[in-house]
Design a protein that fits this description.
The protein is α+β, with helices and mostly antiparallel strands and 223 residues long. It has helices at residues 2-15, 49-53, 56-60, 84-91, 94-100, 102-105, 189-194, 199-222; strands spanning 30-34, 37-41, 71-80, 117-119, 122-128, 147-153, 157-161, 166-175, 178-187. The longest helix has 24 residues, at 199-222. The N and C termini lie far apart (60 Å).
């Protein structure tokens, strides 16, 4: 490595004799991790990540799986003609669940228990499971008294925990009127061993959930 760098330095000096390498270094950034996720902030003088996340660390810390052990098992995306902020407003709207997601959420969650709790820039959304076990795919995961810890981390991350996996919605603005919603599914080693991930079932259910939510967002954007 020393020899290669020496040759490179010699060529740099020959081809660019007036180049001051101290003036062209890469910009510094603040980098930190939380629950296995990497956060990058271009403002090196900003607050530490732990302060930025505020109460979200304790909130998601209640989830019964080890966050650092989660591994990605699936990923796909939706490109929508909607400004990203409308999707955020949709996600954190209390009344949305009972009205818009009545068919997709009703069997699994107690919709009357849903709360959207502000903490700094972010929003915590604890959702209790129904007292009655659902039928079908989710029946084997149901536990009375269990809570799904969901929430929005400003500006572009939505986290949803369940017994069988964790899903992340990541918003990527493509323009003023266009957003890519990236869906990433994670499982811990124990979840991976105990639960056969059914890709087609998961994607079909997410397609329904996203269509319910984005249908409203598209209408708002069009207006």
């Amino acid at each position: 490595m020393i020899a290669v760098n020496s040759v490179h330095d010699c060529k740099t000096a020959k081809w660019f004799p007036d180049l001051d390498k101290s003036e062209i270094q890469l910009l510094q950034a603040q980098v930190d991790t939380w629950n296995g996720f990497i956060f990058v902030n271009a403002d090196v003088s900003s607050e530490p990540l732990s302060d930025y996340l505020a109460e979200m660390t304790d909130f998601f810390g209640q989830y019964h799986q080890d966050w650092d052990s989660l591994r990605e098992i699936d990923r796909w995306s939706y490109d929508e003609p909607v400004n990203w902020k409308l999707i955020v407003e949709n996600y954190v709207e209390d009344f949305l669940f009972d009205i818009v997601h009545d068919s997709s959420f009703k069997e699994l969650y107690d919709l009357d228990s849903i709360q959207t709790l502000h903490t700094g820039r972010h929003i915590k959304i604890p959702i209790s499971y129904n007292s009655k076990s659902p039928k079908g795919f989710y029946e084997k995961f149901w536990e009375e008294g269990q809570v799904s810890y969901q929430g929005y981390i400003f500006p572009d991350m939505m986290i949803n925990t369940d017994s069988e996996n964790v899903s992340i919605f990541r918003l990527i603005p493509l323009g003023a009127e266009s957003t890519r919603v990236e869906v990433i599914i994670y499982q811990s080693p124990s979840q991976f061993a105990d639960v056969l991930y059914q890709r087609e079932v998961m994607r079909k259910e997410n397609d329904q959930f996203m269509e319910e939510a984005l249908h409203i967002s598209r209408k708002i954007q069009a207006n």
